[in-house]
Amino acid sequence: MIKLFKMAFRDLERNRRRTFFSAFALGLGLALLLFMAGVIAWELQDATDTTIRLQSGHLQVRARSYVEEKTSLAWQDLIENPESVAAKIAALAPVQVATPRLYASGIVAKGNETMGVRVIGIDPPSPANAPFRDGLVSGTFLTADDRQGILIGQTLADKLGLQTGDQTTLMINTSNGSVDQQAFIIRGIYSTHTPGYDQATVFMPLAKAQAFTQAGDHASAIFILLKDRQQTPAVVAALQSSSYTVQTFEQMNPLLVQVDQLSNSFMIILYLIVLAVAVTVTVNTLVMAVFERTREIGILAAIGMKGGRIMAMFFAESSLLAIGGIALGLLIGVPLVSWVGRIGFPIGNLGLTGFLLGDRIYANLTLNDTVNLTIITFIVTLLASLYPALLAARMEPVDALHSAL
What we know:
Blueprint: H1 2-13, H2 16-56, E1 59-63, E2 79-80, H3 82-90, E3 95-110, E4 113-122, H4 130-134, E5 136-139, E6 149-153, H5 154-160, E7 167-173, E8 179-190, H6 195-200, E9 201-205, H7 206-212, E10 218-219, E11 221-226, H8 232-238, E12 244-248, H9 249-252, H10 254-292, H11 294-302, H12 307-343, E13 345-346, E14 360-361, H13 367-384, H14 386-393, H15 397-404
Parallel strand pairs: 4-9, 6-8
Antiparallel strand pairs: 1-11, 1-12, 2-10, 3-4, 3-7, 3-11, 5-8, 6-9, 7-8, 13-14
Helix pairs in contact: 1-12, 2-10, 2-12, 2-13, 10-13, 10-14, 11-15, 12-13, 12-14
């Protein structure tokens, strides 16, 4: 075996430039795969974390007749005495925070410009509002007794030219099916670095939202964050009730769950496409080597080297090319992913719906992905060398020697 690798190394050294560029092409392919894996892994995890923090929580308790798509405000579709219900839920050991929220559809207007928004009534002191409180870029956060103030996102403020202290008109659907409108003062502008969310979400104190929508002492849902997401089934079991329904993160975000489930299959196909392009260079290198060394192969066969031994020699060359390419790929890909993981690059507002994306993309390469991609690259390279190895092994000594003359 050692002799085979020595011969393979000697053969690859015959044309160092071609060998280097073959390994380099394979390395670029692996580096691209590492980058793609890191970006997709980070993006899926970030979308999940962002959706939990900003939009759905780990769980929501709702009235059984509540229809989220319709943003129903009818009293029979809402939770009565939500503060009391939230307090009982918050008393459970796995629950980090439970707070009532009231959802309504609205329109923000300034002059002739309008934007459709989702109005959320919140309990301002709740820790669940930390992303918006910590994300204030100007102004102050809401207080529970504020009857004139609202909190808007940076993207919405930029689109309508609004600033802290400005007055704007907000139209909203009410529980009786009519539309009401009032003037509000912008107390603060927040940024979650999620343009799609910041553009479409307006906050006001829960008490004001209840009065504005004529919802009385009701809320759309109890927003729940857990200390550990793995405890979701236990909390769901503890919250089972004939009066309410418990919605899990997966049930509230089916598109995000489907994307997560399909990502592995999609990435495998993409990996194979990238590797196929990169490995083609290796195949061409070995095929050219077969024709350049026809006489040599004929002599080896004539002195008794079996076809299997000749194949093994070309597999050894392929292995050395794969090892060199993998080394180059790791040297290029790992620092690249590390750099993107620290710095990121802006993508702005892509206008996607169904799940939340931030305004910058980062990367997070795991050891598991690195090992798997390295192994896949090595195996695919060996499989690709099967054709030139068979081509060399099937040469008849006489024909090989005559063709080389």
